[in-house]
Each structure stands twice: as C-alpha cells, then as structure tokens.
Amino acid sequence: EVQLVESGGGLVQAGGSLGLSCAASGFAFDDYVIGWFRQAPMKEREEISCISGKDGSKHYADFVKGRFTISRDNAKNTVYLQMNNLELEDTAVYHCAAARILYGSGLSLCNYYAMDYWGKGTLVTVSS
pLDDT tens across 4-46, in order? Predict the structure, then answer.
C-alpha cells in the first residue's frame, strides 16, 4: 500500500521556523520526485518545492526561495521541508506528493496534475 505521511505541522509565530517531514512507503522511493504543496482556506493548492529521487536536483516556487529548503534521505524514504522566516500567508495545510520519474530528473513533473500519490497533509498555522 502506498503511503505518504506528513508530520511536523503546528502553530508558530511569524518570523519563526518549522520543519516538516514526509515519510513514504509502498513504492520505489528513488524513482520518484517528491513535492511539497500547500492549500490555504479558499485558495487553490499551490506548489512549493520538489526534489528528484534520481539526482537530488531541486525546484522552488518563487515565493519561498531563500526561506524554505527541501531535502531528502533516500535511506529513510523521507523528504523534509525546512521553513524559516514564516509569514502569516504561509498558513495552510501542507501536503507531500510523489510522481514517478520517466526521464531526466523528473522536476518537470513538479505540478499538481502530475503527482501520482498524495499525503493527507499537516496543518501549519502562523500567528502574529
């Protein structure tokens, strides 16, 4: 059974930091690109960052560059998202997702429609 389980969400003050984890099981982790997405109330789900299982290359959305860092540990089948300098607008449910890499790094798959599997999400609330 394929599973993606997010953890690490919670309440944090603006300017603070939070680290999220995504534990994967049930599929060949190295063959997938893993992405973080988020969905705020009344907004569409948006891409945050992706990392390739093939070569570790990364992609970030413009709005998080310099604040968020994605990493993965293939030995632990886990992807991390370190979030620093959090803003009120970062409040959302954060999901991780996986897409099977067909060629190259797979970063071209870093979008909502390409993902094969999704986690249920973890809530991040940033307070003032």
Answer: 999 999 999 999 999 999 999 999 999 999 999 999 999 999 9
pLDDT at 108 (0 to 100): 87
Of 97, 91, 93, 95, nearest to 113 (Cα)?
97
Cβ neighbours of residue 21 closer than 8 Å, sequence gap 6 or more: 6, 7, 8, 78, 79, 80
Burial environment of residue 113 by CB neighbours within 10 A (0 to 12, 13 to 18, 19 or more): exposed
User: Which residue do the tokens 């003050």 mark?
Assistant: 13
Please name the residues in contact with 41: beta carbons below 8 A apart, sequence gap of 6 or more: none
